[in-house]
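Do me a favour: review this protein, sequence plus structure tokens, and tell me how the chain folds. Record follows.
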Amino acid sequence: TDIAQAIESMKGSPAGRPDTHLVLISDGAGPSSNEDALLASARQLARAGIVLHTVSVGRSDLPTLFLEPLEDRLYGFVDQPVRLQLLLRPQGLAGTPVRLSIIESDGILAHREMIFTENTAEQVASFEITFPEPGLRRCHFRVECDRPIVPQGDEFLDLHITDRPVRLLYIERQPRWAFRLLRNAFQRDQRVEARFVLLDQADDANRPRMDLPIASADWENIDAVILGDVNSRDLTQIQWQGLRNHVTQGGAGLILAAGPEHMPKDFLETPLADLLPFRKLDLAAGEHTRPWSLTPTRGGVGHPIMQLHRPQEPRNIWGRLPTMLWRCPVSELKPAAEVLAEQPGLDGSPGRPAIILQRAGNGLVLFVGTDETWRWRYEVGDRYFHQFWAQATMFVGLPHRTRNQPGFAPDTAPATLPANIEQQDVRARPDLLSRLAGETGGRAVSLAELPELCKELAEAALQEQETSNLLPWDHWLMLVVFAALLCGEWILRKKWHLP
């Protein structure tokens, strides 16, 4: 029921006059105005002397399914699977088949069926979609079930698909294993256009490296930067400031690959300190520990950077990767920092952050707190090692790559769903109906109480008011008064012997 339209019709109908009792039978849901506007309309009825009674119908205990994309905006490369993940929180849906669909315009891109159990508090549903052409794709979700259900949460998701490679700059001081292996791997990856710079320690620290960007404008053609174990003096202050502005203002991505010598020790008091997702290093905890396995956190399990398994592989691939020995002991995470993976704690103690993601202004910063990811190549080559670094590069670099690309400007018009898609909350709102009736002095009853309400209204004595204008001398009492006055005067004159 469109309650706003119903109230307007009541005010404009012939019955909409004082001493009128109106009965509205509704579920309280529907495409109505906001509650404040509805209550204001009810107060207008009250001022006009119209009493509104409401009868609540429908169910307020319908099962619900809350949907939330783990990423509010996704970026992908043409002809490469884009993994879209939804966090689902079902209520009252145990044992009921539910069909989820990802829809663009009227076409279904992907769908899957799910059955929740009594113990399902939340669950992640994954979809892999491949797009053959670049552009901005606006998708929405549809929930179908054999019984009434109320979907809640975000309705739309923007997918930015590009065919242009991410422009990567990898800066390293010494040719560490990761630097050498990624140089070969990225040369075979068509999604990345990489440039590798190995710093020469013999260069003058006060003279800018000419093979590196200097001013802020020189960084514009770079979408993502990987900083290895470099010294804070390897680049000039102008270059460091240009990099910082490129991330925070230009929206580029930055990956900090920790090392035992300089990164991030040398940068806690530099212009890059604001980009670090932590404030201190816990040097007392020690950097070298017993062998440990990198473990995704609860929030990192479904993150696009951390997806190493393939459809035919088990999801616990992280537990089967080779162990590590070194971790940068960070501490005091910043409020916006999101830990994607950690070193598990011993004897139930909290884990220690190892891979941390943080938004810095318009850009993204990823801190990789170990330099031993190359160990993942044992017996499998680049399968997991390159996949992790490629996903990290794409995740932080694609937003900048597609920022000024034609066809990627989001539509400023409000998004609307197709007419056949249910997008409103269909649960009954007896609370709203009760407040509407209360504004006019009416009653809010259930459907079973409606006959009694109608009977009371039919039997109620209605007070009718009639107004007419009468002149005093047109009334017969005036003649009686006039005659009484004349008689009284005559009697008094006789009694007092007056002439």
